[in-house]
Amino acid sequence: MFDTDIYELKMEGAFEHFTDELSKIRTGRAHPGMLDGIKVMAYGVEVPLNQVANVTAPEAQLLQITPFDPANLQHIATAIRNDQGLGLNPSDDGRVVRVPVPALTEERRKLLVKQAGEKSEEARIGLRTIRQDGIKDARQKKDAKELSEDDLKRVEKEFDRLMSVYQQKIDEACKTKEKEILTI
Fold first, then answer.
1. Where do the coiled-coil regions begin and end (predicted)?
2. pLDDT tens sequence across 129-167
3. Of 5, 36, 77, 96, which residue is the least packed, with the fewest Cβ within 10 Å?
4. Which residues of 151-165 are buried (b: 16+ CB within 10 A; e: fewer)?
5. What's the pTM?
6. Phi, then psi, of 127 in degrees rounded to 5
7. Does domain 29-100 correspond to CATH entry 3.30.1360.40?
8. CA distance 157 to 139
9. Domain covering 5-23+105-182 in this structure, CATH number
10. Domain extents for the chain?
């Protein structure tokens, strides 16, 4: 019999990646996860921001970054400023970096909703690729006479079921994110 559990784990991984990507899209409120994708040049190597500093959100419209080593302060501010996708302008006082999070304009909100839609489409493409790989493997086993025609049909039905489950999860996560973005 053909085991679809491996492919289900891959689909779960693709969904988790999608939710991580969604969490990086900012809403109107400041949250430390907004800066998860930032890489800082520290000690001659690019490292994730959370490995060189502590990121907190003391207010709804402010992020505060406290570096573990004050020598990295300028590098942190530069890395945040250089990430155009965030549109943030950090300032530092010699000890901490403060990043004011401006309120989103209607145009920016629509752009972020569009970005969330693009991420959901990327996740769907990933799921379809996993499904195609699984069905291809099942067909190879059928050609090698390890699976019967009925078993192949059952495998295809199982993949269709998995696809609908994960596509529904993606739709729900995307709708939730859209609601967060559009809430003023």
1. 138-172
2. 999 999 999 999 989 988 899 999 999 999 999 999 999
3. 5
4. ebebbeebbeebbee
5. 0.71
6. -65, -45
7. yes
8. 13
9. 1.10.132.20
10. 5-23+105-182, 29-100
